[in-house]
Each structure stands twice: as C-alpha cells, then as structure tokens.
Amino acid sequence: MKTIKMKNKHILFALFFCALLFFQCSKPSKEGKQNVLLICIDDLRPELKCFGAEYISSPNIDRLAANGVSFQKHFVNAPSCGPSRYTLLTGQYGPANNNALFLRANKIAKGIETIHPSMPEWFKTHGYATVSVGKVSHHPGGRGGSDWNDSTIIEVPKAWDKHLMPIAEWEHPRGMMHGLAHGEVRIKAGDMDVFQTVEGDDNIYPDGAITNEALKQLRVLSTDEEKPFFLAVGIIKPHLPFGAPKSYFDLYEGVKFPSIEHPQKPEGKTTWHSSGEFMNYNRWGKDPNKDMAFADEVRRHYAACVSYADAQVGKILEELKRTGADKNTIVVLWGDHGWHLGEHAIWGKHSLFEESLHSPMIIYYPGMKHEGYKTNAIVETLDIFPTLCDLTGVEIPEFVQGVSLKEILEYPNTTGHSAVAYTNEASTIRTATHRMTLHKDGFVELYDHTTSENETKNVADKHLELVKELKNELAAKMQ
User: Fold this and answer.
1) Which one, of 443, 247, 232, lies nearest residue 352 by Cα?
2) Where in the chain is the domain with CATH 3.40.720.10?
3) Helices 384-392 and 81-90: angle between axes, nearest 10 degrees
4) Which of 20, 68, 315, 406 has most Cβ atoms within 10 angstroms of its Cβ?
C-alpha cells in the first residue's frame, strides 16, 4: 500500500513538472530579443557637434554618436514632417502631403486594397510591445480631429499598443505642437512670436511633458519579462516657433556662428520658396534675408532649441541605462528632415535642396564593434525599417523599399546607395557626387557636389548623359 502511495506521489510530481514546463514553454519570451528605442526629432538639421558643428552644444546626442555609428550623409525621402514620417513608419515611398498617413489609414478602413503593415505593427506581430510617445507620426499622439485628439481617427491603425501624448497645460495635442512657454497655444501664427526664451525648467515647454511620459513608459516596459519593447519617442523642438528655456539660449552667449553659406536666392527654376511657414509668425517687421542681426538671433534661438531637445535625449538615454535595458536595446536617433537657416534665402524646409533633405541619423546597439565611427555612405530614411528587422532578427518584409544598413554598421567603409526625395511638384536623387532634381514639367536641375559650387550652379546642360542616367535611376527606385 505504501509503495502504491509513493508511486502516485511520483506520478503527480511528474505531471506537475510537465505542466509547469509546458506553461513556461508556451509563454512568450523576450529572452535573446533586443528592444528598440527610436527617438524622432522634428526639424533637426545635422547642425550638431558630432556632425561637425563645433559651436553647437549637443553633449547627449554627441555621446550617443560616440558609442554608435553616425550617418553623416543620411537623407530623408520628403522635406516635410508627414510624408517623411510616412516613409519611416512604412518603409515605402508614399504621398507627398502631410496627411500621407491619414490617407493610408482611410484605405485600411475601406478595406478595398491590400495595405502592408507599418513598422510598429510588423514588430507587434513579431512579439513586441509597441508604444509611441509624442510626435512620432505627423500628429503628436497619432490621432485626428480638429484638436488632434479624436480617438476614433487613428493615424497609424494597428501600430501601437499605446500611442500617448501628454498635453500638460497646452489643452490638446494641436496646442502642444506649436506651443510656447506656460501653455501658450498658437491660434493665429501672426499673433505668436517666431522665437522666445523664458526663465524656467524644461517643463515650461511641451517637450518636458513628452520626455517625462517617455521616462515613465521606459520604466514600465523594461520590467516586462515576456515581451521586448519597441518604444518610439517624438521630440517636437526645434520645430517652429523656436522656444526654449533661457538656460539653453545662454549657452550661446558670446559664441561665434559661421556665416550663412550661399544666402542668395537661386537664379532660374528651382524648388525655392518664400518661407511661408516661418514668415507667417510675428517677426516684429524684420526679415532675416535683409537684417543680418535678426538672422543671427533666429539662428541662436534655433540652436537653443537644439540644445533643449538634446537635453531631453539625455534624460531618455540616462533612464534607459538606469533600468538596465541599455544592455539589450538598439537606439536609433533620427531627424525627420533638415531645415534652411538662410541658405538659398530660405528659412524652413519644403525645398529639394540639400538643406531640407539632409538630417542626422545615429544607430547604436550593444556590442557594436565600430563605436564612434562616422560613415559618409549615402543612406535614406527608408532604410531604417529593414535595418531594425535585421538587427533584431525579425524577418525583413518583402514590401519594404529600403535596404538594411547592417553591413555598413559592421563594416563602416561599405558604400551606400543613392537617396530619393519628392514633393508634389518635383523629385530628386542624391548620389555621392551629384544631386539631380526633376520637375513635373520635365525641367532638370543638376548640381555637382565635387565642386565648391555645390547646389548653386545648375550644370544639367553640360552633362546630358549623366542626366539621362540619373532619370532612369530615379524612375527605377520609385517604381
């Protein structure tokens, strides 16, 4: 009798052990999977110390660059927030308008055509917890409606487990987007100052609240034992209006800024524009193209916003390290496009000149062999989606139009590839030596980047064979 009882106990123990083993095996596990931290910064041109601008104070982004690989020749696929973020989040070329992602969402809702998953949705289906904070898609928080807070209108459907936008004292996400200190909301651009500096801590401007929420989400996500995380954080500054706490503006007291390169309005047909977004703000009757002292003020306030954004990056990276998640997290820092500060007599983005399309990108992952390397390989925003798949071991989808940059990260002398960008009126292709811009009416601009003239002299009529070659390459890339 005793022997039977002992056997039953052994059987029960074996059954319990098998059940426990089955339960553990059936649970999703994050073991071996790397997290992703994507930091998007609005209107950030590559004017950082780690990109050669010695007069800029950007210690936190510089530190990330010192630990990772910085892509000195990264180009976006559109010179505006909405379409550029479309390419980031989908890995595909798309519409040139700021509502590009909402147009995609409408197609999903109608269900009459196949729409490929977005990058966060793709990672979600591969076991990741996906969270966005701040301005990751075009609307901060990823919602539509008159104040960008309508939960029934989602900019990127099926993408995020949480898409968060703390509004603090700015009333709504739309108010945060163009907010100045202490809850000031833009009602009419002409009634809002184009730049501002106010005494106070980081929380008197919108990015303080965004960063605080990002830190909170990092703490939660880093304790999840089942799922790796894909956390995207969108910092608004240095987007217009240029507002930052006074401590950041004070960093530039007595600092000499270099002269503006090629400040003249270009001759002939180009994608030049009259800087409407900038000029619509209150400028106290001043024009930076005519008033050099005012131009210097604008540039210093932009720099202050860069340093303010840099401080938010520092807090996020510090919290990543404090949680210990830094040991297993890939970090990508990305500027959604460039910004003219007087070059070609433009103050803003929206052109197809270098200044609108050239933005910083830095990639870091634990154990990388080439820390601090600066690669001059030409790459484009489309490449981020397949690169993150490649680095995490997630399957690279066939529908993405970019290429993985893993080889460049492992062998930084690897050459890159041409980069394409577009507006509704023209498209452009950038190679290691030239930029060609093709207008809808067939007019061509060709600029030689091997000369000091760069994008100030159209040489298309002198290089007809090269123009033909680049037209074919442009068409092939965008088909």
Assistant:
1) 443
2) 32-417
3) 30
4) 68
Q: What is the 3-state secondary structure (H, E, C) of 351-374?
A: CCCHHHHECCEEEECCCCCCCCEE
What digits encode the pLDDT tens for the residues 149-172?
Answer: 999 999 999 999 999 999 999 999
Closest CA to 347 of 265, 254, 253: 265
Q: Is 116 labeled as catalytic in the residue annotation?
A: no
How many Cβ atoms sit within 10 Å of the Cβ of residue 10?
Answer: 10
pLDDT at 412: 86
Q: What are phi and psi of 115, to 5 degrees?
A: -115, 120
Residue type, 258: P
Integer angstrom CA distances of residue 463 from 149, 455, 459: 51, 15, 7
Q: Write the DSSP assignment of 384-424 as a string of letters.
A: HHHHHHHHHTPPPPTT--S---HHHHHSTTS----EEEE-S
- For 318, the enclosing helix (H) or strand (E) is helix 292-323
The single residue of 40, 81, 305, 389 carrying the catalytic annotation is 81
Reduced to 3 states, what is the DSSP secondary structure of residue 447? strand
CA distance 216 to 96: 34
Please give the torsion angle defined by the CA atoms of residues 399, 387, 70 and 260, in that order, rounded to the nearest 10 degrees. Answer: 10
Predicted confidence at residue 97, as pLDDT, reads 97
What is the CATH topology of the domain spanning 32-417?
A: Alkaline Phosphatase, subunit A (3.40.720)
pLDDT, tens only, 291-316 = 999 999 999 999 999 999 999 999 99
182 classed as catalytic: no
Cis geometry, peptide bond prior to residue 241 (ω within 30 degrees of 0): yes
Across 84-240, the runs of DSSP E, i.e. the strands, are 129-134, 143-144, 150-154, 162-164, 195-198, 229-235
pTM of the model: 0.93
